[in-house]
Amino acid sequence: MMRSYKIGVIKGDGIGPEIVDEAIKVLDAVASVEQINFDYEEFLLGGAAIDETGVPLPEETIQGVKKVDAVLFGAIGGPKWDTLERHLRPESGLLGLRKAMGTFANLRPATVYDELINASTLKPEVVKGVDIMVVRELTGGIYFGQPREYGEEKAYNTMVYTRPEVERIAKVAFEIAMKRDKRVCSVDKANVLEVSQFWRDIVEEVHRDYPEVELSHMYVDNAAMQLIRDPKQFDVILTGNIFGDILSDAASMLSGSIGLLPSASTGEGVGLFEPIHGSAPDIAGQGIANPIATIASASMMLRYALGEESAADRIDTAIKKALAEGYRTQDIAAFDAKEVVSTSEMGSIIADYAAK
Ligand SMILES: NC(=O)c1ccc[n+]([C@@H]2O[C@H](COP(=O)([O-])OP(=O)(O)OC[C@H]3O[C@@H](n4cnc5c(N)ncnc54)[C@H](O)[C@@H]3O)[C@@H](O)[C@H]2O)c1
Ligand SMILES: CC(C)[C@H](C(=O)O)[C@@H](O)C(=O)O
Ligand SMILES: [Mg+2]
């Protein structure tokens, strides 16, 4: 029987529209062979929303995304809006949207494709088989803490975590670990920050309900080093908002390009599925962005939000096949390429494989 889903689409700025178009191409390809019907509804966010409505997060977007089954998002931001006041910049729209949607758990898998093993900045033997899940708290911490101020003589932000915020993200990490290798490494800065000691204590408490999971703690500076030294030591990394932001970009180089890593932001209601990278203004409009991170985010959307495992498997297999056949976008062109392709050619190749 035909299954129908309503997908909210936020293309955003810079390369956002280019990469989201390719993910939709791939979704439509799997829909045709999987008895699925997707209805897409576009919403504005970020710079595109500022240009159209004067604000980065229009009310129609906040209301609209509550009425869909899942949201696929590209990226926002760019130099065009950098002179605006902070609360009016594109990035504030994304933070506001995450908060409004209650997507407190950002899952950022850092996996290394065997087909692309030479693209990693690390030696093949160090990265072969890397399969890390970064569980990043997304709606708290220093990004949202009050008070905050930009003044003439000083500026400050506040890193706050409440007990329920830490409990719920820790639960997500332990639940995910139960389905994986049952190891959680919680990353913090408890040697310096009270908020991190608090985080650590609550993670320990939640851990009591998951005795099968091995829990370790690591300071964030060491974690950054260990990710590059021996990434295979990690299974699930549980961490706060800002540390997760930084560590996940670092982890992308294990795979070879930030254009490869997807994410799922889940929590209280509708989920938001987005690549971990930004709007890449330096390459926007050139047709050279790697769409794989966004296509893989669409796959996460099928798997986590819609329960369409078989369609998600099709996409994941199609991505691997395109890489195995030697198709490469510019960012990974130096690594075992048989043919260097554009953003839209990569999308079409993956769509074709996904529909077979
Ligand atoms: N989720 C988001 O919307 C998001 C995430 C990060 C940054 N940003 C915003 O994006 C803008 C640019 O930020 P930045 O330059 O620090 O980070 P960025 O991730 O946009 O780009 C960093 C580097 O990676 C490259 N890159 C990124 N995605 C790529 C892809 N798919 N294919 C090939 N190369 C890719 C870029 O060309 C650039 O050299 C800023 O306004 C920033 O605030 C938005
Ligand atoms: C654009 C910015 C607000 C965002 C973040 O820091 O969360 C981005 O870097 C990300 O990783 O999604
Ligand atoms: Mg980031």
UniProtKB/TrEMBL annotation:
Isopropylmalate dehydrogenase-like domain segment(s): 6-350
Listed pathway(s): Amino-acid biosynthesis; L-leucine biosynthesis; L-leucine from 3-methyl-2-oxobutanoate: step 3/4
Binding residue positions for Mg(2+): D221, D245, D249
EC number: 1.1.1.85
BP GO annotations: L-leucine biosynthetic process
Xref: InterPro entries: IsoCit/isopropylmalate_DH_CS, IsoPropMal-DH-like_dom, Isopropylmalate_DH
Compartment(s): Cytoplasm
Keyword presence, Magnesium: yes
Catalytic activity from the UniProt record: (2R,3S)-3-isopropylmalate + NAD(+) = 4-methyl-2-oxopentanoate + CO2 + NADH
GO MF term list: 3-isopropylmalate dehydrogenase activity; magnesium ion binding; NAD binding
A cellular component term, taken from the record's GO annotations: cytosol
Cofactor note: Binds 1 Mg(2+) or Mn(2+) ion per subunit.
NCBIfam families: leuB
Protein name, UniProt field: 3-isopropylmalate dehydrogenase
Source organism: Nitratifractor salsuginis (strain DSM 16511 / JCM 12458 / E9I37-1)
Gene: leuB
